[in-house]
């Protein structure tokens, strides 16, 4: 099944380098928070949110690419945005640097949400 895509859909070659950079930044961000000491309440809270958003990210990929279910994927990516915003909030309590490293990821997921919505709408 081929999905109709909106005019603002980037070319396929863009996704791999963008996600590579974002995952490196996410890893540095989480590592920076972890280094503050997992025994701290806010470190644990931030990292639990981080783990949950990673699960939602993976689930979104399965729904969108694997099962080709753009509506379910849209619901998941909206939940991802909410949990990611909470992750940034808790990371900022521990380290502003770590929170800022997640900002490009948040912006990319906002773009992906708009793209997902439009793909759902067109199909």
UniProtKB/TrEMBL annotation:
A Pfam family that the UniProt record links to this protein: TspO_MBR
InterPro entries, per database record: TspO/MBR-related_sf, TspO_MBR
The alphabetized list of GO BP terms reads: tetrapyrrole metabolic process
Q: Cellular location of this protein?
A: Membrane
Q: Which domain of life is it from?
A: Bacteria
From which residue to which does any coiled coil extend?
Answer: none
* Descriptive protein name: Tryptophan-rich protein TspO
The uppermost taxa in this organism's lineage are:
Bacteria, Pseudomonadati, Bacteroidota, Flavobacteriia, Flavobacteriales
């Amino acid at each position: 099944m081929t999905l109709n895509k909106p005019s603002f859909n980037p070319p396929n070659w863009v996704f791999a380098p963008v996600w590579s950079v974002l995952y490196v930044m996410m890893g540095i961000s989480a590592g920076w928070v972890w280094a503050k000491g997992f025994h701290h309440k806010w470190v644990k809270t931030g990292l639990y949110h981080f783990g949950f958003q990673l699960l939602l990210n993976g689930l979104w990929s399965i729904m969108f690419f694997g099962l080709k279910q753009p509506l379910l994927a849209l619901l998941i990516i909206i939940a991802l945005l909410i949990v990611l915003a909470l992750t940034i909030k808790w990371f900022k309590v521990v380290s502003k640097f770590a929170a800022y490293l997640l900002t490009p990821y948040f912006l990319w997921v906002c773009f992906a949400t708009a793209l997902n919505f439009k793909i759902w709408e067109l199909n």
